[in-house]
Amino acid sequence: MGQPRLLLLDEPSFGLAPLVVKEIFFILRRINTEQGVSILLVEQNAGLSLRFASRAYVVENGRVVLAGTADEIKSNDAVRRAYLGD
Fold it and tell me: Most buried of the four, 24, 35, 62, 63, by CB within 10 Å?
C-alpha cells in the first residue's frame, strides 16, 4: 500500500531481542515524524511505548480507564506503580 495514513501494530516487540526492539521503535518514530503516518500501537512494554507516544490509553478488561498525553500517563502514580515499576 503506497502512502498509508495510519499504521496499526499489535505487540511489535513480542519475542524480539532488546536491540531489535529499539531499532523497530526508532524506525516507527521516523515513519511518524518524516512521513506523517499516524501509528496506533498496542504494546505491553509501557515504558518504551510511552517514550515514543504522543498520546496514550490504559486499557483494563477491554475498557479505556485512562487517557491523555504520554507525559500525563507517565506521571500518573497508579500507572507508574502498575506498569512502569516505579
Answer: 24
What SS3 class is residue 43?
A: coil
pLDDT given at position 64 = 96
Phi, psi of 14, deg, nearest 5: -60, 120
pLDDT confidence band for 2 (50 / 70 / 90)? confident
Class of domain 6-84: alpha beta
Q: How far apart are CA 55 and CA 40, in angstroms?
A: 10
Domain ranges of the chain: 6-84
Q: How far apart are CA 73 and CA 51, in angstroms?
A: 11
Pairing of strands 63-69, 55-60: antiparallel
